[in-house]
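During the reporting period, we have paired protein sequences with backbone structure tokens. One record among many follows, to show the layout:
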Amino acid sequence: MRITDATGYQEPRDSLSHDWVHLLSFWGMSPFPVPNMGTSSVPYVRNLSPSLLILSGGDDLGTTPVRDETETALLEAALEDGLPVLGVCRGMQLIHAHFGGQLGTVSGHIAADHHVDFNPEWHGFYTPGTKVNSYHACSIPKELSHPELEARAWDANGHCEGLEHISKPLAAVMWHPERPGAPLGDRALVDALIAKKATP
């Protein structure tokens, strides 16, 4: 979850947009928000036995160290356990950085919809040239530096907008499935990740 400040007094709080609750309920899923507890979040999540880990957006990497620690620990545990992972915006950036990638900057991508194209592997989820929402200032190059990650979507300037692990049930997108302007194919992508986990 994001880390937000209380109004009028010093009390950092974990928070999650109601948009996520509405979307996951619409998808027939029950969300379990995970507090930012550092490495202690791993047994907490394992006890829940979830079908999917979502690394959501908000907060730039490096600005909230306890969130960075929490999500990095959860990502490592998910990769170890084979738990499906969907990274969203910041979540995609965290995944890219975890695998050794460097982040750049991009302009004109905050609250500005734009079109993306897709590799054939995602044509079953999305139509080429689909318009997506956009709320980020960080960029990821289309040519990913880690051999286990492959770009699946990119914008008109060649920035990576979607990626997938070559063998594990892990994918990420730079747009926000929970916000207006998200493509309908997000649900199909999530279903494919969960099905990949279920495949022996």
